[in-house]
């Protein structure tokens, strides 16, 4: 099966390679000429424009968009629509906000095209491990794309599924990432408690490796954590600065709208924001209040 792919960064490039290994032809475009050249060198078809991409695809065309969420998705869709025929399929495989996806689904389908949203998890490991895909859209369109999803998944029948109508895939992926935030925060806090118990001289890489087998807290995330600690047990050279790509925040907003208590995910998002503050005002306020009511020492500098 042919697939058009827009966005050939690390994840897009790995997806193209996995599809090629599964016997599918990828026609790919990226504004980065080097990324297009790498795609071609790997055995797929690289093109230099969206017009050329649509011309290289035959029959019912399916185009997977892997660009940053927000305006880039809308701009890409607007450029593609005049180049497509009724029944052709646009797939948003990025981390779009699900309400934007619902709007795009309505707009695209009103023009006779089809729209599928794929919440895609697996990151840079997808080429080796396969991708977990949460898919929203019409049943007929999803079924037509089954060969693509089966090739990208860890196994043909596992790790992917049609979860609901347009927007559902990105909604489920949003909550998935919110859960991921909470899990990461719990691991980080737990290992910090271990690290601070200096008199026991605990070996964090060893403990992480022990937990990987048989423990109730074992996970792929722990596997990756164990490997990272083995390479840098004391985290030398790293700054306490953690970015967030939006999904955790969106999950918190949705939880509030639905009157769902989600304190772990909420706190994990706040901690990421806190990590970016140098000599933050909040902690200085706490210090001065403690000094005012209890005479506790204040560190200056």
Explain this structure to me?
With 301 residues, this protein is an alpha/beta fold. The protein is built from 14 helices and 8 strands. The chain has helices at residues 10-21, 33-41, 50-56, 71-80, 98-110, 126-129, 139-144, 146-152, 168-196, 204-211, 220-231, 247-257, 263-274, 281-294; strands spanning 2-6, 25-29, 45-47, 62-65, 89-92, 114-121, 132-136, 160-164. The chain has an 8-stranded mixed beta sheet with strand order 3-2-1-4-5-6-7-8, sandwiched between helices. α9 (168-196) packs across α12.
What are the key terms here?
single chain, alpha/beta, elongated
List the SSEs and their pairings:
Blueprint: E1 2-6, H1 10-21, E2 25-29, H2 33-41, E3 45-47, H3 50-56, E4 62-65, H4 71-80, E5 89-92, H5 98-110, E6 114-121, H6 126-129, E7 132-136, H7 139-144, H8 146-152, E8 160-164, H9 168-196, H10 204-211, H11 220-231, H12 247-257, H13 263-274, H14 281-294
Helix pairs in contact: 5-9, 9-12, 9-13, 10-11, 12-13
């Amino acid at each position: 099966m042919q697939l058009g792919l827009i966005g050939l960064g690390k994840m897009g490039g790995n997806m193209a390679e996995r599809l090629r290994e599964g016997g599918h032809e990828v026609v790919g475009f990226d504004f980065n000429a080097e990324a297009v050249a790498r795609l071609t060198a790997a055995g797929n078809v690289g093109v230099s424009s969206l017009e050329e991409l649509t011309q290289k695809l035959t029959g019912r065309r399916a185009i997977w968009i892997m660009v940053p969420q927000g305006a880039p998705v809308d701009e890409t869709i607007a450029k593609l629509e005049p180049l497509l025929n009724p029944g052709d399929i646009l797939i948003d495989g990025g981390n779009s906000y699900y309400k934007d996806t619902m709007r795009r689904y309505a707009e695209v389908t009103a023009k006779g095209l089809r729209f599928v949203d794929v919440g895609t998890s697996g990151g840079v490991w997808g080429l080796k491990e396969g991708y977990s895909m949460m898919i929203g859209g019409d049943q007929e369109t999803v079924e037509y794309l089954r060969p693509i999803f089966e090739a990208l998944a860890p196994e043909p029948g596992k790790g992917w599924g049609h979860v609901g109508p347009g927007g559902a895939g990105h909604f489920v992926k949003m909550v998935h990432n919110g859960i991921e935030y909470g899990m990461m925060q719990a691991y980080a806090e737990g290992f910090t408690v271990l690290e601070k118990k200096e008199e026991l001289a605990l070996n964090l890489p060893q403990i992480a490796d022990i937990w990987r087998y048989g423990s109730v807290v074992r996970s792929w995330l722990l596997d990756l954590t164990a490997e990272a600690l083995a390479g840098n047990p004391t985290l030398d050279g790293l700054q306490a600065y953690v970015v967030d790509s939006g999904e955790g925040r969106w999950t918190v907003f949705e939880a509030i709208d639905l009157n769902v208590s989600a304190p772990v995910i909420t706190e994990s998002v706040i901690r990421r924001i806190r990590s970016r503050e140098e000599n933050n005002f909040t902690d200085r306020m706490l210090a001065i209040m403690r000094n005012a009511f209890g005479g506790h020492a204040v560190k200056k500098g």
